[in-house]
Amino acid sequence: MRIYNTQTRKKEEFETLEPGVVKMYVCGPTVYNFFHLGNARPFITYDTMRRYLEYRGYKVKYVQNFTDIDDKMIARANNENMTVRALADRFIEEYYHDADRLNIQRADAHPRATDCIPTILDMIRTLIDKDYAYATSDGVYFDVSKHEGYGKLSNHKLEDLEAGASDRLSGEDDKRNNADFALWKFKKEGEPAWESPWGDGRPGWHIECSAMVKAYLGDTIDIHGGGQDLVFPHHENEIAQSEAANEKPFVRYWMHNGFINIDHEKMSKSSGNFFTVRDLVKHYDYKILRFFMLSGHYRMPINFSADLLKAAENGWKRIETCLENLKFISQTAPEQYTGEAAGKAEALLSEDCAAAKKAFIKVMDDDLNTADALAAIFDLVRSANTAVKTTGISKAILQQTADLMIELLGILGLKAEQENHVPKQILELLQQRSEAKKNKDYALADRIRNEIQSQDFIIEDTPQGPKVTHK
What is the DSSP-derived secondary structure letter of residue 191? Predict the structure, then answer.
């Protein structure tokens, strides 16, 4: 298996620090609002990575945090006259509401930053003792000039960062270097605060993740995931403070997913093209959003539009229809194939099943290529749709094909509904129609068909008998 490592800018053979075990950390949401489409992409991407690693036999220790203290949270909590903790409680529950329906598995741990204050304080104390950090009038800062290799993830040069930062800072700032970043922010009026040896305050954003990684997974982990926008400064700063404090390599493989564009423009609130998942599921099912996200390679930008969502919906319907047909036809199929044509069709479908699984694993092993993995599934759909047209094909091969399709979809976190959920009264009408046709009372059969259709169901007459589905 190979993973593209952002730090080395190339695909590398995947080898874990501990044989058979993957320690994986993913940056989670800042819980001051419903999560948006851009957030959904990393949540789905790394959930899929976790599922695939487990499918390949690894034991995955998966941690995804909640950032529950920052400027945006404080501002909204004050505006709504509530505590930051209450605001976090509310939107953590809202996160689970959407994430569960996107079929994102719960992490082994979902730590909150504010629950890791002791570890954060210990790390800051260590950094101060080692002269990597220092106190100023407004907080405690990390001295980037002391960490050799700062910029190795983002490929930024420290002198360029210093020059760029100087344009944004006021002359009142008393940091040693313009690019130094906050580990601890001293308390301001209207903000929650915790005691520390340097003064009451709250943690900086970057130290939170370093502390949670250390507390839940240790000094060195195998995979750290997040969006491309986190490469700098967040992940760069995580590396600096973690490696300075722990004196060990921090992350073996850095994974970053690409951006979401809306009609070929970057999603942003200022552009008016900003969508939360909660808004979108008023028009599209959660599983369609997940299917859409997986239809592109995770490292590439993905364009979002109504037309592309509709195409994804149609693509998903093709898969579900294929599974419905496999199940329906298998109900009356013989235990063993009958006839030479059925034998040839069955042999070909069996070969196509093996080829689809092999192709799926090959492309998923190649840096989690879910786009080509879905292509392998659609190849199997085409093969199955061709095979079921052959009379006499066996129940066993139909079930084998359906089971494989469900297995591969499951690795991607996609659940295909095989149950048609046709109400009892519709099934009774279907039986009456069959009796009417048997008695050559075609006028009655047509009236019953119209009655079924008026209740939003469609009848398809097949060689295996009538098949009824939702419109």
Answer: -
Q: How high is the pLDDT of residue 401?
A: 98
In 3D space, the residue among 404, 325, 411, 327 whose CA is nearest the CA of residue 103 turns out to be 411
Write out the two tokens for 362: 């090959």
- Is a pLDDT exceeding 80 seen at residue 130? yes
Res. 293: pLDDT tops 70 = yes
Q: How far apart are CA 281 and CA 448, in angstroms?
A: 35
Report yes or no: 323 and 405 within 8 Å, Cβ to Cβ.
yes
Residue type, 432: Q
Q: Which residues contact 447 (CB under 8 A, 6 or more apart)?
A: none
CATH fold of 304-411, please? Four Helix Bundle (Hemerythrin (Met), subunit A) (1.20.120)
pLDDT digits (tens, 9 = 90+) for 31-50: 999 999 999 999 999 999 99
Domain range annotation of the chain: 2-257, 304-411, 424-470
For residue 228, give both structure tokens.
């491309």
Please state, for a pLDDT cut of 70, what percent of the chain lies above it: 94
pLDDT band at 167 (very low <50, low <70, confident <90, very high): very low
Take residue 6 and report the two structure tokens written for it: 């952002």
Tokens of 248: 């060990």
Q: Which two tokens stand for residue 168?
A: 């944004």
> Is the dihedral angle over the CA atoms 85, 98, 25, 237 positive or is it negative?
negative
Q: Is the pLDDT of residue 170 over 50?
A: no
> What's the CATH code, domain 2-257?
3.40.50.620
Residues 25, 225 contacting (CB under 8 angstroms): yes
| 187 close to 193: Cβ distance less than 8 angstroms | yes
Who has greater pLDDT, 399 or 161? 399
150-155: which pairs have CB atoms within 8 A and are 24 or more residues apart? 150/236, 150/240, 151/236, 152/7, 152/239, 153/6, 153/7, 153/231, 153/232, 153/235, 153/236, 153/239, 153/254, 154/231, 154/232, 154/233, 154/235, 154/236, 155/9
Q: Write down the number of H helices and E strands in the chain.
A: 15, 15
Per-residue DSSP letter, 234: I
Token pair listed for 255: 């994974």
3-state secondary structure of 104: coil
Position 305 pLDDT exceeds 70: yes
Residue 301 pLDDT level (bands cut at 50, 70, 90): very high
CA distances from 383 to 33, 351, 370, 376, 419 (A): 45, 10, 20, 11, 22
